[in-house]
């Protein structure tokens, strides 16, 4: 491990002193220019290979109830630069070691009259920029309320954007590809319905935002280390083509309560002429604090199946009965009501899943709908909705634990909160202790519906603090967390690697709620996954949902081979085989790939990438010399051409290729795949046809 840190105070500047300061990335390809305007407004400008990629953009914050905001009238009192180079090892990740190398510029600003001091810190990496606001402890500036952060990202042209509507409560949208000036006109059609949603502007979009300039530069705007602050959206001034930060408000409309000393999250801009570099960037992780969990030996990647898809499709139910109009926890006696016959989380059925998991080498089984309260869990803003410890009468917690243990299978707990954060905190200790007592060491949490306390949003500061509290409390119990409907990740898993999964985007469930766009997973790695892994829950083999539930005519908009490719394309240390055992039993030859694919990686190579169109990734297994390749293709059928030059020179391998059949098509023929085997070396070149909405998966095993 190489670590070097040096700090040089460049200049002590007076009001009349130096007002512009340049910083270059370690390899010289990026340059950021900080300037203080004549009225004392701080600005920055970003260049890639001497080409402007972010025009001069203002920095600052508007404060509530203060005569003066933190927008202008500053003078520079100090500027210092330093550099940093360290290689660190993630507990889990896409590679064994990550280099964190940057040059830094910290500008200390003092405001006239108020005498308040802030620092703007820039870190320039070889793949992009991070910057944040810092508020040192000072007598005249202790508590303050943010009315709005006023960070600008001024575009150099009418770029192509891959965007979802800005929303305080959900990210579960399909992406739209359009020019910046087209966002306003397309906005309404980009909004689909959700259990909780609140848009704020018809040019408002979410981060991570993926952009492409006319001259082929890929730009990505996001944030890192979002802790004790509210989530940032971007609001576009579509006349000037300037994005303005837009924080998520609380019930009173305020956007953050801060106490010095404190810092904002990092604002990040990744940029390259090669889209693969955006996927390879580790800026988001690098801008987070090192791991704060002393002993991480209990944190383990997991491949799992679950009593889940049958409820999502409507084949089975989470609820135990249809006879109880509303549940009163502790009062409603479920031993006296008539079961609806569709309750999937029953001991017999769960044991079948455990058998299936054990037979095919999975690590764990998730069970949803095991606890009392599902009869009216949704849409009522019910505070006391679940207690997280009381099973329905047909779910034998102890018996299931013993059975799973005897088969070497771990159980994954489900904690749906229905957005009632206070209720969850109220029960958290008991719920986690109950898990430990019954052999569970991972929980999937969920926040469906409007947030309680009412008026708060899924992405406002105090609710983000709730998600963080749950992750930290879980770490005390040695419990891993996979949160659904929580805020999108910003690399916090580096600091708390027990945050092993997150949804925070439109996952596979929407394929059973009417379907997602066929190119969805060629965009997610460029957007949602810039912040961290996603519990996307791939592996659907039956695309016609009516076969599971005649009342659901949804169609899964991918081919079967695409579903296999997702295990490599959609990185996650937590991977689900989401379909029903009976569907896997129909296609055991294709299922073999899901059985074989690892969840822990040593190295990752990005072979092909174009947002919205295709992604091909190769990863090396952490525990062997084997490689796995995955491709996800968009709407246009295409030939993917790859060279296996990542394989070790001189070694021989056997590749098993799971590809779309020649006549495959996500709409008309999604289950048409072909499996072939061939000997390969690091000289082998492969040309594989990918169907519309198709893809492929390859396992490459060393032949000894
Ligand atoms: C939404 C989650 O994303 C899904 O996975 C879960 O099954 C339901 N909520 C019920 O909790
Ligand atoms: Ca969800």
From TrEMBL:
Domain of life, source organism: Bacteria
GO molecular function, one term: carbohydrate binding
Pfam families on file: GH97_C, GH97_N, Glyco_hydro_97
Required cofactor names: Ca(2+)
EC number: 3.2.1.-
Chain ranges of the Glycosyl-hydrolase 97 C-terminal oligomerisation domain: 600-700
Top enzyme category: hydrolase
Glycosyl-hydrolase 97 N-terminal domain sequence ranges: 23-290
Keywords of the record: Calcium, Glycosidase, Hydrolase, Signal
Domain Glycosyl-hydrolase 97 catalytic as annotated: residue spans: 308-505
Cleaved signal peptide residues: 1-20
UniProt keyword Signal, yes or no: yes
Keyword Transferase found: no
Classification via InterPro entries: Aldolase_TIM (IPR013785), GH (IPR017853), GH-type_carb-bd (IPR014718), GH97_C (IPR029483), GH97_catalytic (IPR019563), GH97_N (IPR029486), Glycosyl_hydrolase_97 (IPR052720)
Subunit description: Monomer.
PANTHER family in the cross-refs: GLUCAN 1,4-ALPHA-GLUCOSIDASE SUSB, GLUCAN 1,4-ALPHA-GLUCOSIDASE SUSB-RELATED
The name this protein goes by in its record: Glycoside hydrolase group 97 family protein, putative alpha-glucosidase
